[in-house]
């Protein structure tokens, strides 16, 4: 059975405290190493997401029926989406000292995923966990325990802001209507 982080949890989590200057620098320094391998890291993150949480593939008509991880890795559509995800994260990381830019990016991402793609917000929490897992494994030399804690704080903030955007646009959980 598929694990579902966040199931049954209240999504009105307390917003994490703002990142400190030290945490911002740690995130930006570690991200510079990750972003050197942008495409491979993005593909690794999405493949891990789809293998560990197969229900997340339902939102991707181009590759939702692909079962094999190797085939997912070769999917041009998956690679393209992975590149977009990594570029969005890059914009956030580069803009950590500009809260208005961060809010703007998250508003665009949140609105698109709520209104156009109809993605349940819990998948942002799940994706955050997958990102931390993959970065910790693939970039263990730069993603130390302290750096991982900073990333955890950033991704928790991202999740809180995205869910706030969902609420703003009047999101209602689809799963309650499929009873």
UniProtKB/TrEMBL annotation:
Pfam family, one: Globin
Gene Ontology terms, MF aspect: heme binding; iron ion binding; oxygen binding; oxygen carrier activity; superoxide dismutase activity
Top EC class of this enzyme: oxidoreductase
Keyword set, alphabetical order: Heme, Iron, Metal-binding, Oxygen transport, Transport
Residues of the Globin domain: 18-167
EC number: 1.15.1.1
Residue ranges crossing the lipid bilayer per the database entry: none
Catalytic activity, as annotated: Fe(III)-heme b-[protein] + nitric oxide + H2O = Fe(II)-heme b-[protein] + nitrite + 2 H(+); H2O2 + AH2 = A + 2 H2O; Fe(II)-heme b-[protein] + nitric oxide + O2 = Fe(III)-heme b-[protein] + nitrate; 2 superoxide + 2 H(+) = H2O2 + O2
Protein family (similarity comment): Belongs to the globin family.
Name of the featured protein: superoxide dismutase
Organism (species): Dicentrarchus labrax (European seabass)
Organismal lineage: Eukaryota, Metazoa, Chordata, Craniata, Vertebrata
Originating gene: LOC127356902
């Amino acid at each position: 059975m598929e694990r579902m982080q966040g199931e049954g949890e209240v999504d009105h989590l307390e917003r994490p405290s703002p990142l400190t200057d030290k945490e911002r620098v740690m995130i930006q320094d570690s991200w510079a190493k990750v972003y050197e391998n942008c495409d491979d890291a993005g593909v690794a993150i999405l493949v891990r997401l789809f293998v560990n949480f197969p229900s997340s593939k339902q939102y991707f008509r181009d590759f939702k029926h692909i079962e094999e991880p190797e085939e997912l890795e070769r999917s041009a559509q998956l690679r393209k989406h992975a590149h977009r995800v990594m570029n969005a994260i890059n914009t956030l990381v580069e803009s950590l000292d500009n809260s208005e830019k961060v809010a703007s990016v998250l508003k665009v991402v949140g609105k698109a995923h709520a209104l156009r793609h109809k993605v349940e917000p819990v998948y942002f929490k799940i994706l955050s966990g997958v990102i931390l897992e993959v970065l910790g494994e693939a970039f263990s030399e730069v993603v130390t325990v302290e750096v991982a804690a900073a990333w955890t704080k950033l991704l928790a903030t991202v999740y809180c802001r995205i869910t706030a955007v969902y609420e703003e646009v009047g999101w209602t959980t689809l799963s309650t209507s499929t009873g």
